[in-house]
Amino acid sequence: SQTITGNFANVIYGLNANHLTDQVIQRSKRMILDTLGVGLLGTSTEVCHKVTKYSKTYSSDISSTIWGHLDFRLPPLYAAFVNGVAVHSMDFDDTWHPATHPSGAVLPAVIALSEAFPQKKKISGLDLLLAFNVGIEVQGRLLRFSSEARNIPKR
């Protein structure tokens, strides 16, 4: 018999671009555009300046874009961190119940990782949409599994 975690992993592993309906693709694009807009605005916040300054101490041969900065790049882990802080620092990013901000956690990581692929293995836009939706799906399912999340009051 399979564990809940094993079943969950198999579902996630089995997702592919054919599972992305037109409606999912359109909503995903809207979520991504919203997240990028909020993230670009968030690059001007004090907290984003602080994490950017902190993260500049790390370097790597593999690097990813820091939104709103053409003058430097960071390792994917730190690029995702800085861009995620930028998105959430404005607190306008998308939410759902129980309270979470799905795109602000997922998109910066997906974009940073996609940039880290070697040139000959770059991923397509459809692959990026799939990765984004898998991240959203994982987050949603983890919330559904969480007994603590059920106690968050509806707002």
UniProtKB/TrEMBL annotation:
It holds the Pfam family MmgE_PrpD_N. Coiled coil: none annotated. Belongs to the PrpD family. Residues 7-150 form the MmgE/PrpD N-terminal domain. GO terms for molecular function: aconitate decarboxylase activity. This is IRG1 decarboxylase. SUPFAM superfamilies: 2-methylcitrate dehydratase PrpD. It comes from the Eukaryota. GO terms for biological process: defense response. One of its GO terms (cellular component) is mitochondrion. It comes from Fregata magnificens. PANTHER family: 2-METHYLCITRATE DEHYDRATASE-RELATED, CIS-ACONITATE DECARBOXYLASE.
